[in-house]
């Protein structure tokens, strides 16, 4: 029942403290980025501490995006993700957390994202009177001699209360007894020492012992108390109690000294002799933690360390020592030991939050990580400086409360470094200095800041003509330094020498691979080259692109046979229907070797070696009589013409190109061996008579009529000139030159000028000679300018006319 009443009184006390604490939470504000709350200890789990989100300026709607969370070494509190309120998550025992410290608080960080920020929160833990005063012993034994005079004081053990403040203010009460009263002696540090005061002389024979109860009461609400039994034995002859040389002993010792190291020595003396003057030392009412760290020699009074001392756990120890003589009299003193700090704790680095990955276009100064650095040492040993080590565009700046922010110092470039590895180095100012390190890895996310780049600015492709549609032409390749969709490149035609639509008629490009394919078969004779523009574009948003030019050269193939221009095509058809249109050449029988008979003219629509032509005589009645120039196509006599040679010669020449395989064409040339056209007419007549074609006969008849008409006109002209000669030459004839022969250039169709004719060719006709074929007649030559005598008496080709006055032995005129 007493335990139940104590729990109920504790709840009522907590309720009375909670209300002002909550009011204090609503009013308590600190500097920016720092929030303070105050709550009583021993609150149940789930108890409200304060509206953290509202105090940070966050609305409930912002909480999912801002991701409010707590960062602490030990999670005493939790924050609601829906309301943002701060709640208790673990049992809070102030005495366990802070010990005898006058103030007790828990500090932690509240982190929010988007943007990243940190706030320092401090929750003060207020003491609740949940600990009763306690004595270290169940009973206190005192021995008082019967000779002791009234008014003598005997110090009693002080009670200890783990609470602080008013809850630890103790008052003492003693059960009523006519022989003893209670007095309280207040020490300089504020503690109260109870003393038993003898009110009247004792008589051991009347009463040899007394049973008293000492009660310690604290100042809490409700009050708590603890009691101890005081047993007084009345003895004889020990009338001097031990006396310490000092009431308070002070010492200073370094932390981390080995166990057994001397700290100080206390000394008490007793004026009595014998066993009554023999003094022994022991601890008074001290916590168990003191007994674990220190020991006292019972004979010498030397205090030594018994365990490791840690300044960070506790910097000052204060406890009482008791000196007792052999007669049971005691004396008490106070020992205060201060622990000096040593630099035995390296800084502790905690990465509170890391925003990874970071986009590469993040501006300079963007917070990418929050770092908490703590050094448990004090003074200069606990002063910490931080730096970053590593090649990275990052810097670290100090924030409040031992926090640091890692920010970008310059622009990031994922293409140069996809991640940055740096080391956070924290170093204190102790001697020697201690440091610690923590690795920080920051990934950089890609942004579409690079356009595709072609491996070549311009591509050249060579495709042989007559290719198959769909054949591969060339493959273009562009690289994008970005990653993912930003670096995924696709291709298409962007234009060309005929525009995008015109280029699509020639080639196509595969979007993924960049392979360019022919859309149709190319013809070198129609199109020798063309250019298209290929665009490469990435998949970023917005997309980036670049363009390259692809120039396609069509290579020639030997797909065109030579075409014979002279003699006319079809002349070599033989004696068939087309034979009547075949041209012929008249060669005088007096022609020497090398006489130019004719020139075979041929062209080839191909180019290069495919258009290089060679000529060869493949058929002739007299193979040794004629030869043809290998490259010129000129047909000349290989030897002098003799009387034994047939009057009619049919020559067949083949024209070949140099392609692989070679293509060829044939040309047929008819040659008549005669001194003049008149002499060749019988041969032509025989040829016409022997022909099987009426068209051939008709051709020769027309030719004969044309020749007769020409002779008639020549006779009339000569007669006119003879008469004019008698009257003297007119002025119009004086301007005529002395040229005896006319040279008429050969006439060719317009398509002869393609450059495949290796030589120019002129057809030369001597006076008196005429083309014997009606298929191709050159324009009549101009009249030669000759004296009248030569005009009347001359004979073409050196033959004398019947009316000539020259002798038979004279050589013919030139």
Automatic annotation (TrEMBL):
Gene3D superfamilies in UniProt: Cadherins
Record's keyword terms, sorted: Calcium, Cell adhesion, Cell membrane, Glycoprotein, Membrane, Repeat, Signal, Transmembrane, Transmembrane helix
Membrane-spanning residues: 699-721
Signal peptide bounds: 1-30
InterPro entries per UniProt: Cadherin-like_dom, Cadherin-like_sf, Cadherin_C, Cadherin_CS, Cadherin_N, Protocadherin/Cadherin-CA
Region Disordered, annotated ranges: 782-814
A molecular function (GO) term: calcium ion binding
GO BP, sorted A to Z: homophilic cell adhesion via plasma membrane adhesion molecules
Compartments in which it is found: Cell membrane
Coiled-coil region list: none
Source organism, top-level taxon: Eukaryota
Residue ranges of every copy of the Cadherin domain listed in the record: 31-135, 136-244, 245-349, 358-454, 455-564, 587-684
Keyword Membrane assigned: yes
Segments of skewed composition (Low complexity): 801-814
Gene Ontology CC entries for this record: plasma membrane
Membrane topology of the entry: Single-pass type I membrane protein
Function of the protein: Potential calcium-dependent cell-adhesion protein. May be involved in the establishment and maintenance of specific neuronal connections in the brain.
Name of the featured protein: Protocadherin gamma-B1
Gene designation per UniProt: PCDHGB1
């Amino acid at each position: 029942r007493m335990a139940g009443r104590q729990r109920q009184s504790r709840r009522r006390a907590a309720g009375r403290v909670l209300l002002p604490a909550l009011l204090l939470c609503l009013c308590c504000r600190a500097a920016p980025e720092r929030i303070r709350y105050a709550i009583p200890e021993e609150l149940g789990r789930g108890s409200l501490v304060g509206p953290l989100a509202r105090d940070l300026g966050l609305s409930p709607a912002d909480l999912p995006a801002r991701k409010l969370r707590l960062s602490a070494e030990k999670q005493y509190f939790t924050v609601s993700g829906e309301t943002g309120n701060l709640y208790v998550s673990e049992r809070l025992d102030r005495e366990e957390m802070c010990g005898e410290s006058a103030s007790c608080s828990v500090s932690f960080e509240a982190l929010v994202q988007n943007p990243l920020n940190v706030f320092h929160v401090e929750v003060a833990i207020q003491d609740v009177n949940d600990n009763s005063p306690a004595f270290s012993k169940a009973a206190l034994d005192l021995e008082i001699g019967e000779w002791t005079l009234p008014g003598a004081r005997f110090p009693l053990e002080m009670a200890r209360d783990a609470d602080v403040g008013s809850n630890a203010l103790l008052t003492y009460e003693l059960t009523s007894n006519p022989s003893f009263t209670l007095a309280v002696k207040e020490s300089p540090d504020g503690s109260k020492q109870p003393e038993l005061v003898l009110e009247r002389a004792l008589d051991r024979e009347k009463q040899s012992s007394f049973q008293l109860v000492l009660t310690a009461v604290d100042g809490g609400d409700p009050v708590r108390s603890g009691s101890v039994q005081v047993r007084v034995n009345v003895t004889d002859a020990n009338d001097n109690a031990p006396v310490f040389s000092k009431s308070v002993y002070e010492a200073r010792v370094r932390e981390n000294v080995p166990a057994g190291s001397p700290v100080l020595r206390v000394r008490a003396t007793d004026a009595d002799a014998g066993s009554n003057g023999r003094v022994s030392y022991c601890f008074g009412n001290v916590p168990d933690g003191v007994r674990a760290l220190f020991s006292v020699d019972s004979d010498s009074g030397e205090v030594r360390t018994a365990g490791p001392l840690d300044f960070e756990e506790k910097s000052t120890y204060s406890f009482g020592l008791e000196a007792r003589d052999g007669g049971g009299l005691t004396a008490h003193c106070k020992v205060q030991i201060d622990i000096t700090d040593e630099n035995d704790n390296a800084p502790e680095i905690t990465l509170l939050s890391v925003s990874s990955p970071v986009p590469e276009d993040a501006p300079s100064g963007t917070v990418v990580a929050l770092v908490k650095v703590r050094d448990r040492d004090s003074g200069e040993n606990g002063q910490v400086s931080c730096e970053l080590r590593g090649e990275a565009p990052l810097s670290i700046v100090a924030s409040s409360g031992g926090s640091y922010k890692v920010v970008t110092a310059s622009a990031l470039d994922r293409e140069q470094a996809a991640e940055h590895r740096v080391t956070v180095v924290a170093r204190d100012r102790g001697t020697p200095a201690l440091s610690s390190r923590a690795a920080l890895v920051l990934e950089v996310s890609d942004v579409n800041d690079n356009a595709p780049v072609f491996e070549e600015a311009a591509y050249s492709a060579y495709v042989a003509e007559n290719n198959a549609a769909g054949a591969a032409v060339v493959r273009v390749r562009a690289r994008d330094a970005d990653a993912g969709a930003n670096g995924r490149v696709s291709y298409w035609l962007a234009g060309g020498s005929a525009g995008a639509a015109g280029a699509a008629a020639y080639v196509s490009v595969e979007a993924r691979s960049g392979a360019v394919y022919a859309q149709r078969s190319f013809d070198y004779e129609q199109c020798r080259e063309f250019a298209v523009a290929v665009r490469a574009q990435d998949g970023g948003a917005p997309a980036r692109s670049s363009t390259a030019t692809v120039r396609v050269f069509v290579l020639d193939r030997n797909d065109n046979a030579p075409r014979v221009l002279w003699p006319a095509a079809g002349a070599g058809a033989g004696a068939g229907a087309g034979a009547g249109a075949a041209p012929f050449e008249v060669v005088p029988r007096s022609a020497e070797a090398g006489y130019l008979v004719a020139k075979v003219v041929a062209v080839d629509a191909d180019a290069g070696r495919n258009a290089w032509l060679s000529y060869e005589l493949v058929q002739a009645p007299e193979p040794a009589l004629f030869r043809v120039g290998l490259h010129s196509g000129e047909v000349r006599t290989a030897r002098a013409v003799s009387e034994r040679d047939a009057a009619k010669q049919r020559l067949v020449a083949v024209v070949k190109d140099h392609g692989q395989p070679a293509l060829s064409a044939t040309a047929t040339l008819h040659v008549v061996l005669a001194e003049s056209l008149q002499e060749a007419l019988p041969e032509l007549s025989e040829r016409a008579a022997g022909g099987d074609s009426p068209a051939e006969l008709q051709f020769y008849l027309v030719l004969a009529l044309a020749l007769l008409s020409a002779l008639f006109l020549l006779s009339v002209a000569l007669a006119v000139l003879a008469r004019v000669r008698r009257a003297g030459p007119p002025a119009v004839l004086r301007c005529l030159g002395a040229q005896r022969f006319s040279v008429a250039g050969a006439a060719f169709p317009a398509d002869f000028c393609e450059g495949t004719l290796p030589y120019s060719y002129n057809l030369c006709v001597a006076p008196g000679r005429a083309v014997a074929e009606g298929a191709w007649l050159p324009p009549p030559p101009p009249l030669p300018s000759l004296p009248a005598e030569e005009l009347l008496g001359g004979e073409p080709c050196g033959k004398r006319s019947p009316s000539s006055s020259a002798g038979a032995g004279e050589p013919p005129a030139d």
